[in-house]
Amino acid sequence: MVRGSRVGVEISKSLTQILVCPLSKQPLRLCEKSNSLISDTIGVSFPIVEGIPCLVPRDGEIIETEDTPSDRKADETTQE
Amino acid sequence: MSVRMIARRLGSKLLPRFAPAATLHSHATSFGFKEVNEEEKSQLVGNVFTKVASNYDIMNDLMSGGLHRLWKDRLVSKLTPFPGMKHLDVAGGTGDVAFRILETINSGRAMDDTLEDNLQEETQIYVCDINPNMLNVGKKRAQERGLGNLGSLVWVEGDAEKLTFNDDSMDGYTIAFGIRNVTHIEKVLAEAYRVLKRGGRFLCLELSHVDTPIFKQLYDYYSFSVIPVVGELVAGDRDSYQYLVESVRRFPRQEVFASMIADAGFQQVEYENLVGGVVAIHSGLKI
Predict the structure, then answer these.
(1) pLDDT tens readout for residues B92-141
(2) Which of A47, B133, B241, B243 could form a disulfide with B53 if both were Cys (CB 3.0 to 4.6 A apart)?
(3) Is some CB atom of chain B closer than 8 A to the CB atom of A55?
(4) Where are the residues of the annotated region Disordered (chain A) (predicted)?
(5) Nearest chain A alpha carbon to B195
(6) A49–chain B Cβ distance below 8 A for any pair
C-alpha cells in the first residue's frame, strides 16, 4: 500500500457510490487533491483521516471558495 | 433463554405506565443517572469512549467473564451472513461483530468455487462509529487478525443518528452495545430502517433489564459495587464504568424498546433474553 499523497485513493469507487452526505443524503464526490469527500449539494467537505472517511456532521467544513474549507462547521448552519 | 414474539398490533397493550415520548425525552437528557442537556450528551459519551477505547476489549472480557464473546456469536448467528452481502455494523468501533461476520462468510467458502470467490470479493462490512479512537483500535485489531488487507472491511466515522449511507443499501444492520449511548434512539432506528434494503434485518444486542428476584439483587450488586471498582483498578477510570452501569438502568425495558423498533417501521419485531435479561437481542425485518 502506498502511503502519503495516495492515501485518498484507498477510498474505492464502490464506496463513493454507497456513501452519501449525512446531512443532505445526496451523493459525495471524492476530491483527491484535498483528500476529502465533498457534498456539492450543501457545499461541505468531509476529511479522510488515515484512510477513514470522517462523516460525522460536525467533521464537515463549509467550502467558501473552490476546495477551500472555512472555519465554520457544517452543523452550525445546517437545519435539521 | 426465552424468545418473545411482539407483533406490531400488540404494541399498545405492552406499553407500560409512561408514554414513549417521555421515555425518549428522558433518554436524550440522561447521562447515566445524571440529567444533562441534549446537546451535551453526545460530547459526554464521546469523552467516555475516547477514554475507554484502549482498554475496551479487556474490560469487556473482565466484566462479562468472557460471556460477551458468546453473546456476539449469538448475534451474528441470527444474521445468516452470505458472500457478497453489504452489512453495516453501527457503533462497532473495535470490530468484534464485523470480524465475526466476515469470518463466518469466509469460513463458509467452498474450494475452487469461482462464483463464490467473486461474490466474496464483493462482500462489504461497513464499520461505523462516531469515535475515531475506537475505530483506530478496530483497524489495528483487524490487522492482527489477518483481516486488514482484504478490502471487505470498511471503516467509517459517522453518526448513528445521521448515517452516511444510501437508502436501501444494506442487507443487514447490527448495533451491539451501542444504542444505549445514543442521544435519540428513535433517530437511530429511523436511520437503520432507511439504509436497510427490503428484506433486510435489524439486530440489536444490548444490556437490558433483569426482573428475576434474587438474581436481580446479585446483578445490581455486581453492577454498582464491583464494576466501577474493576474499572478503577484496570483502567484507572471509575467514572466511565459508573456511567456504563447507570446507562443500562436508564435504557428502556425490553418490551418498550421492541415497540420503538416497531414504530420505526420494522415488522416481526421480537427479542431474546440472554442470561435472564442481562442482555437482550432485539430483531426486526424491513419488509
Answers:
(1) 989 999 999 999 998 876 555 677 677 767 899 999 999 999 999 999 99
(2) B133
(3) yes
(4) 59-80
(5) A18
(6) yes
Angstrom CA distances, A68 to A36, A44, B8, B60, B205, stand at 11, 10, 50, 43, 42
Q: Which residues in B lie closer than 8 A to residue A48 (C-beta atoms)?
A: none
For A54, the closest chain B residue by CA position comes to B157
Residue of B137, B164, B167, B187 best to disrupt the A interface, most CBs of A under 10 A: B164
Q: CB under 8 Å to B179, separation ≥6 — which residues?
A: B91, B160, B185, B188, B204, B206, B251
Of A65-79, B22-36, B86-100, B115-129, the poorest mean pLDDT is in A65-79
Residue A65 lies in a domain: yes
State chain A's maximal CA–CA distance in angstroms: 40
Whether residue A20 lies within 8 A of chain B, CB to CB, comes out as yes
At residue B61, the pLDDT reads 92
Residues of B with Cβ-Cβ distance to A51 under 8 angstroms:
155
At residue B223, the pLDDT reads 95
Does this model's pTM top 0.90? My answer is no
Residue A48 lies in a domain: yes
How many CB pairs (< 8 A) connect A and B?
A: 56
The CATH number covering residue A64 comes to 2.20.25.10
For residue B11, name the pLDDT band (cuts at 50, 70, 90).
Answer: very low
Q: Is B34 helix (H, G, I), strand (E, B) or coil?
A: strand
Count of structural domains, chain A: 1
Evaluate whether residue A38 is within a structural domain: yes
CB atoms within 10 A of CB B95: 26
Greatest CA span in chain B, whole angstroms? 59
In a domain? residue A63: yes
- Flag if B155 and A52 touch (Cβ within 8 Å): yes
CB A20 within 8 A of CB A61: no
B50 labelled ligand-binding: no
Q: What is residue A73's predicted lDDT score, i.e. its pLDDT?
A: 60
User: Is A55 close to B149, i.e. CB distance below 8 A?
Assistant: no
